[in-house]
Write a structure and sequence with these properties.
single chain; mainly alpha; two-stranded antiparallel sheet; 2 strands
Length: 196
């Protein structure tokens, strides 16, 4: 397959992933559809790992990949080199999303345990006692309703999206380097050689 076509396929795949990451991160600001005070929102949401990391930092290389893959062949090596540089940035954004999502899953949500004070009831748990593996502890959080399930689902979605984006951007780094070093379309080169 031509490296330009591969770039185009990866770029097209990254767009819906980035949009899903942005939407998932925004939903974390509204647990169970409720509007909360800023001090009542889980702190790791403010790291913008879905909006910035898996969103904007991945959309930029996706645009470049589409440009590098235009008409199946970008016909220049500079486009592929720029695609490599931006793909490294996209890889970093995906990896950032993975790290923050993991921290969000391990640490648990900020919630009201019934006394009107918002705390992180699961932050000091060991991995054996972690709330993820002990669903009976979920009843500790009284408000917002279903906050634990909300956080687990959305942080898990962001984790998976971040992993997929990081893998795709890494593949594009290798693809772009191949296109930069060897040229973007081998078919055109073979045709010219056989025509001589």
């Amino acid at each position: 397959m031509c490296t330009g076509k591969c770039s185009k396929c990866i770029g097209i795949t990254l767009f819906p992933l980035a949009v899903c990451a942005i939407v998932s991160n925004i939903l974390l600001y509204f647990p169970n559809g409720q509007v909360l005070q800023l001090s009542e929102i889980t702190d790791l949401v403010w790291f913008f790992h879905g909006i910035l990391g898996a969103g904007i930092l991945v959309i930029l290389p996706a645009f470049m990949m589409l440009g590098a893959g235009g008409a199946g062949c970008c016909a220049n090596r500079c486009g592929m080199l720029l695609s490599v540089i931006l793909s490294v940035m996209g890889f970093a954004g995906g990896a950032y999303c993975v790290v923050i999502s993991l921290l969000g899953l391990i640490g648990g949500p900020l919630c009201d345990t019934g006394d009107g004070e918002y705390i992180y009831p699961f932050r000091n748990d060991t991995l054996e006692d972690n709330y993820l593996f002990n669903q009976t502890t979920w009843s500790i959080c009284k408000q917002p309703e279903n906050i634990i399930l909300w956080n687990i689902v959305l942080f898990s979605i962001l984790l998976v999206i971040g992993v997929i984006e990081a893998i795709l951007c890494f593949i594009q780094v290798i693809n772009g380097l191949t296109g930069f070093i060897c040229g973007t379309c081998m078919r055109r080169r073979k045709t010219n050689i056989s025509g001589m």
